[in-house]
Prior knowledge:
The protein is an alpha/beta fold. It is built from 8 helices and 10 strands. The strands form 2 sheets. It has an 8-stranded mixed beta sheet, with helices on both faces.
Amino acid sequence: MKEEKVEFENQGEKIIGFLTLPDSKTNNLILLVHGFTGNMNGPEDLYKRLAYILTENGFAVYRFNFRFTSDSFEDYHKMTITGEVDDLRLLIKEFSKKYEKIGVVGESLGGSISILGYSPKVNCLVLFYPAIFYKENIANRWSSDEEIRELNEKGVLPWVRSSGQKLYVGKKFIEEANKIEVFSKIQKIKCPVLFIHGNVDTTVNLTESERAFKIANEPKRIEIIEGAHHGFKDKNYQTSEERQDKAIDFTLEWFKKWLK
Length: 260
């Protein structure tokens, strides 16, 4: 296995990621799309582990940071939903020049970005606890009169990551979360789609995947991981490799079936 840093440019800003390549040539590549305030490694290194396992099984994998995502998150207030969709579409376009088949894994907000950024060049899709209903999951987090007043005055609002790191989100992102509709776009997806969700996820409720699964086109599947919270953590919100491993196994099985 080989790993190399690969960068792209979109509107003057960098998309930075790592491409892992199997020992033998492959025509299949999988993109790992991170969620809100996440990064290329995924929650508790889930994406890093997933990338290496997929590569060991013959897939090329690209895990990346969207524009304005960095270790410091100093520019995160510039992040928008439409901007991340545009980043993903650029990556799909660029990698499809070299690879015959493209797979996508999206987690949380990255799941809905993967739905909005879907194109016929995507041959297989896996959604980890996708945050499909923005008003319920995102916009309502900043809905008090005081927060709305601060947003109008400053153009940003604070957010604290689970690690304790403080960052800011921008007005345009919150406005988009109030108006962009994802649910109806699910029926436009024409490739095999797998939903994986924990049954004790209180950040993005399991009902979101269940509702989306009902209207998704075949072939489709939904896997529910017992005792798994957001990020496939346990019910106490602690890292759980056991639950991560289940999600990784389901994902690998799906790509072996539909992307090979």
